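User: structure tokens for this one?
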Amino acid sequence: MQEQLQMTYIRILLDTLDRKQKILKEIYAATKRQELLLKETSEQTEGLDQCIDQKSECLEILNQLDDGFEMLYKKVKEELHGNPGKFQPEIEKLQGYIRSIMDLSVSIQALEHKNKLSMERYFLRHRKNIQTYKSSRHKVNTYYNAMAKFNPHQSFFMDQKK
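Assistant:
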């Protein structure tokens, strides 16, 4: 019975790593999409927001999977280390998933670093546009206020008197 329970835990660990790998692939795809949106010069704030929201949801799921994985791994750790030959195929699958997950994680981190720099430039560019807009709006408001106070007839009569 104990051996069957251990195998069930190991299968659950494998399933967890499989789900984690799929979610990391989703995060990678969203990060690539974010990179493309940041390269475009048009307004893409909605697309960027969607990418960020999608990645946030995936990260929440990843954290839950990690917590569950750690809890289960603690239960089978001694058996896996004590009898590695008994679970050799499963151990190799676990190691394969872990390698793949690590590769994906490194790729995502590199892409995120690149996107962070692009995002900073994006926000800087838009901050300047907003400042220019505010400055222009202030100038226009000043002009209209001055024009509102200006009485064209007063000027005409002054010129006529001279």
